[in-house]
From TrEMBL:
Residues 4-73 form the Ferrous iron transporter FeoA-like domain. Signal peptide: none annotated. It comes from Collinsella ureilytica. This is Ferrous iron transport protein A. Gene3D superfamilies: 2.30.30.90.
Amino acid sequence: MPAMPLSLVRAGDTVTVSKVRGNTDLRRHLQELGFVEGSEVHVVTSSGSNIIVMVKGARFGLDVKVAQYVMCE
C-alpha cells in the first residue's frame, strides 16, 4: 500500500506513520505530538477542514492542511 497523507484517511481507520514532511518547525511540532515514524494513528472523525485523531492515547484535532504533511501506510 503506497503512503498517503493523513488528510485522506477515512474516519475509523488506523494507519502507521511512515514519514513527516514539511519545514523543520512543523516536523518538530508534529513529532512532539507523537507523529513519529512507526507510530499508529487512529482517525476518530474526519470532516471537511479538520480531523480528530488518537495518537499514543491522546486525542488531537488537526487542520487538514497540516495533516497533509503526515504520510501514512
